[in-house]
Design brief:
2 domains; 11% helix
Length: 188
């Protein structure tokens, strides 16, 4: 559960019982007063993200591993970009699920979470970024270590790296309406 700094300290020191934490989550102070939307705000009006120097665009899944959507883009009813990310660690334990810009589930697998206006960074170990979303730019930038069933896709400023195929996508490229699909099963 993500809490404000004051309540976080209270919860960490067992001064805020879990039942009270959950009650605060159901009626967040800033959310009720219009100071927070409760979602990652993305003002971009088109479905595209920057993955390293590569731009991937189009509505729907951008990355699937073993038939499961890992990274997807959708347009909201208001014409804004919505991101969905299914984030696991290398051993398959869930870190976070973001569904159309909204955090779903608990963050037990996240070592550290940093949220500031239009940025989100999730670390699963010290100095190890599992997911970084920067929505302050014209094209949303994503860095990530995406895992599923032992398959890894590394999205870094240098480019995309698919571990099981040794495929690397480096340099400025644009993919529109393309989906990267990885399978653990060997082709028959």
């Amino acid at each position: 559960m993500v809490l404000c700094p004051n309540h976080h300290v209270q919860a960490t020191r067992n001064a805020l019982p879990e039942q009270e934490q959950r009650a605060k989550k159901l009626a967040p102070y800033n959310g009720l007063r219009g100071h927070a939307e409760g979602q990652l705000r993305i003002d971009q009006e088109f479905c595209a993200v920057r993955l390293g120097e590569t731009v991937a665009g189009g509505e729907g899944a951008i990355l699937e591993i073993d038939g499961r959507e890992i990274l997807a883009l959708r347009a909201s009813d208001h014409g804004r970009l919505e991101l969905s990310v299914d984030l696991e660690d290398s051993s398959g334990l869930p870190i976070a699920i973001i569904d159309r810009n909204e955090w779903i589930g608990d963050s037990a697998g996240a070592w550290d979470l940093e949220f500031a206006y239009r940025t989100l960074t999730i670390r699963n170990h010290q100095h190890q970024i599992a997911l970084s979303i920067d929505a302050r730019r014209e094209v949303v930038e994503i860095r990530a270590q995406l895992w599923r069933n032992g398959q890894q896709v590394n999205i870094s400023p240098a480019g995309l790296y698919f571990s099981t195929t040794d495929l690397r996508i480096l340099g400025a490229m644009v993919f529109v309406g393309m989906k990267f699909c990885i399978s653990s099963d060997p082709p028959s």
